[in-house]
Amino acid sequence: MSRRGSALPARVHWLLLGLALLCSLVLFLYLLECAPQTDGNASLPGVVGENYGREYYQALLQEQEEHYQTRAASLKRQIAQLKQELQEMNEKMRSLQERRNIGANGIGYHSNGEQAPGDLLEFLHSQIDKAEVSVGAKLPSEYGVVPFESFTLMKVFQLEMGLTRHPEEKPVRKDKRDELVEVIEAGLEVLNNPDEEDEQEDEEGPLGEKLIFNENDFIEGYYRTERDKGTQYELFFKKADVMEYRHVTLFRPFGPLMKVKSDVVDISRAIINIIMPLAQRTEAFTQFMQNFRDVCIHQDKRIHLTVVYFGKEGLSEVKSILESVTSESNFHNYTLVSLNEEFNRGRGLNVGARAWDKGEVLMFFCDVDIYFSAEFLNSCRLNAEPGRKVFYPVVFSLYNPAIVYANQDAPPPVEQQLVHKKDSGFWRDFGFGMTCQYRSDFLTIAPNTEVAAEGCQGADGRRVVLCIGPSHCTEAEHLSQSDAGLCSNGRAATDSVHFDPAGGFDMEVKGWGGEDVHLYRKYLHSDLIVARTPVPGLFHLWHEKHCADELTPEQYRMCIQSKAMSEASHSHLGMMVFREEIEMHLHKQAYRTNSEAAG
Predict the structure, then answer these.
(1) What is the pLDDT of residues 282-325, one digit of tens each?
(2) What distance, in Å, lies between the first and last C-alpha atoms of the chain?
(3) What CATH number does the domain located at 272-451+499-568 have?
(4) Domain residue spans of the chain
(5) How far apart are CA 416 and CA 581, in angstroms?
(6) CB distance 183 to 223 below 8 Å
(7) Which pTM was predicted?
(8) CA-CA distance, 469 to 465, in Å (whole number)?
(9) Parallel/antiparallel/unpaired status of strands 362-365 and 272-278
(10) Would you call 261 exposed, middle or buried from its count of C-beta atoms within 10 A (0-12, 13-18, 19+)?
(11) CB distance 520 to 470 below 8 Å
(12) Which residue from 147, 179, 332, 333 has the least number of CB within 10 angstroms?
């Protein structure tokens, strides 16, 4: 009995073990059948021990798939847009090459002699790496720094002002306005549609909504241009109800240098007709003719001088000066026009331009206080082209030599004053009176509206006496014997003179100032290229300026402003303002020194 009792529990034990194994096998097969398929050894999401069904994993996979599909679609759109922009840029550059370099094989010029990069996008990225954007550059001194200029939605704060720009101003030039608007829009695009590699998370507003930035969230920006690399922009945005600022850095890289055209310019036969309105100022005219003799007669030898003189006083002296130059240098290429009326610079230049009857000619509108070099005359020829371009050089205006050289016994000769220094003068970037332009362009910019009748009776009834060289006179009315004596042989021709009282200038402008801006704006409104640049060989000599009471309020304001700017530099004017304080300081210093020596 005892043996059978011990055998029964053993059988039960093995039976229970077999059932347990069978259940384990069934459970294992069930798990294999119900578990979702996974990639490799990837672990199932969720907390260990929780029971997840097929529907949960299918929903999770579908959500992730939709997320990646949306992201992939966004990346595809951006890639397509970049490809399109790159293709358009390549097409523009190719068309520019083909249009501007017909017959030049369409090859771009590179200063280093290398071919243009095959991948333009790669080259543009290399420009960013070269610029001082992410890593600073070692500079030799503080003068090597390229400073930033700052801007907001409405204002630009600039360092390089000249005399017509202000420390704070609205961007007036269209290209500057368009540039800043484009930069802000690009910054908003970066913030509102971030790339995957951007190190930022989708921020949410106070109510959990996604933050969308607009131009009103732009706080400030900074930009600077490295001439050989490109322009860097630092932009800062901030939502009113969010503490953090968003910072975007953009860079506009410059592309490789490209040859636009290459041609030969022959100026060996280009005559310049220098036209000068004049009233009295005979001493200044004497000094001008000394420079004219040295530069135009002895060096250049391709110059014609037209002087339009207003009034009778001083006319005989001007005639004598011209005759003296003629006798000394055998120079006959000049025209003297006498107008017995009030001085009007615009009218004088109009009459002088139309006094030329030998076809096309390059004209230089000049004042009696101008000093120029032979190099400037060539610059005038090189930068003006009929039907295409006019040249508006910026004059370097000299300060009052009595102030500049106050520590010397007397100012040096004029030739030694012609230096480009901060305390000796300034670039007169608000003046537009000196200009080089071809006669055909001048006549086209303001066509004749009134022409003098046969016999040279002016439309306004004023008489005109025209002398071409020392022996050719043309009369506007009947010439008296005294008038005819203005020319050396006393002979008066009967040719008619045609001039436009309206002309390229505003004839309503009387006396000083304003007429040059009128003509300048006409050229700006035309299809001609206006070349505006400082030139080293053109100086405006200082002279005492008198602002007449007859001027209009606007003209008088311009005259006083020009007078103040032309007197001395900021530092010299400051020394004059604080002269008493300086003298008192020097007196105290001398007293202290004497007291210490006596003690």
Answers:
(1) 999 999 999 999 999 999 999 999 999 999 999 999 999 999 99
(2) 142
(3) 3.90.550.10
(4) 130-266, 272-451+499-568
(5) 32
(6) yes
(7) 0.63
(8) 13
(9) parallel
(10) exposed
(11) no
(12) 147
